[in-house]
Amino acid sequence: MQNWATAVIEQAVGGGKNVPPLLFSPITLRGVTARNRVMISPMCQYRSVDGGPNDWHLVHLGKFAMGGAGIIFGEETAIEAGGRKTHACAGIYHSDHIRRYRRINKFLKTLGAVSGIQLGHSGRKASCHDASRNWQPLTKADTAAGLPPWTAIAPSPVSEAPGGPLPHEMDLGDIGRNIEHWVRATRMAADADFDICEIHGAHGYLIHQFLSPIANRRRDAYGGDRQGRMRFPLKVAEAVRGAWPADRPLFFRCSVVDGKGGEWYLEDTLAFVRELKERGVDVVDCSSGGMRGSTPFPLIPRVPGYHVTYSARIRREAGVRTIAVGLITDPCHAEAILQAGDADLVAIARAALYDSAWPLRAAAALGLADQYGLLPSDYAFRLRGRDRSRSGYPEGADVRIPHSPDDLVPYVWRRELQAQACGGNLPT
Ligand SMILES: Cc1cc2nc3c(=O)[nH]c(=O)nc-3n(C[C@H](O)[C@H](O)[C@H](O)COP(=O)(O)O)c2cc1C
Q1: Which of 38, 40, 43, 47 has most ligand 1 atoms within 8 Å of CB, for mutation?
Q2: Are 335 and 37 in contact (CB under 8 A)?
């Protein structure tokens, strides 16, 4: 166990005092109850066709539901085609998309999970290649490969990277149309049976571009001081809340601080979150980065739980529910965060890519009475049976394996016997 949190963790797991794990306590947000507090964080897949999900998404998200997660978010989903980053990004802007997302949501819910959609618009980060090509901007040369570039929109005509393509500065008409797109996408998401809607206001995308002075150089009512720069994001929050059913929760993902060299800090987010709360945002998903500038603001060190202090302060000082995310891989660490009152939900991304049944392992590690209750009933039945048969034959039991009625072969299984095959490392 890592020494950075040993004391807190030991306390969190009750030090043998049999405290039920908070990570596996249900949470109710408006009319939606999640079976536990493990959330699968949004993860772009670059596998959509014309913005729509397909079998890839059914399997990718379905395996997390089978692994016991409480809340499962799909990737950032663009509110209009031009708001996607790449031609393969997800979107929700055709009526056909509704039917496709509904199929996936039905499957996730059958398995006991709550499903979330993260709505977004990439703004000046639109029109690029995917992660495997480091999000390089598309050029005319990509047209031959069926990937024509398009002109991105942004609060100001400032490129994402020096020398990059200049986005079109949104005029008041563009702002109005963009808000209509948020509303249309929200209604479609409700129709597609998502339980939770999250507004992607982080990572240097359109909403974050309005917030940060690095990307917002406007002199009208949508720029200037913090209040002006918050105007568009708050209008989006109001519009989405108005279009999203009152009994379903609304989340908002913030970059609590810009990235290296940034100009938007925690105090700004606190002021912003207080306004979001007044507009009916229920949960703040505390992330960071995506916006680079030239101030001395340093890079956040990527230590386990690197956003937890942000989540803790926002939760306490703005009095809103929060999500902690960022290199949380150890179940005891997740439990410690909740027990310390630093967050209400813990989100995992890469840990779930590594092990889609992370919640099951976490439940076992935290001593949940019946971790198999998280699994589909047929799996649970078989695994409980496996535990029963194992407990009948402890390690080192001297047994006979029948090869025929009168040939009973002695057999002993011990971990040490496997050590050589594992290069001397005993399996855990
Ligand atoms: C493959 C991948 C795709 C991601 N796509 C998104 C996304 O669509 N929206 C978003 O807000 N964050 C996205 N993220 C960030 C994650 O949601 C998460 O905040 C981040 O990976 C830190 O959590 P982790 O340490 O548990 O991976 C992505 C991360 C990964 C690994």
Answers
A1: 43
A2: no
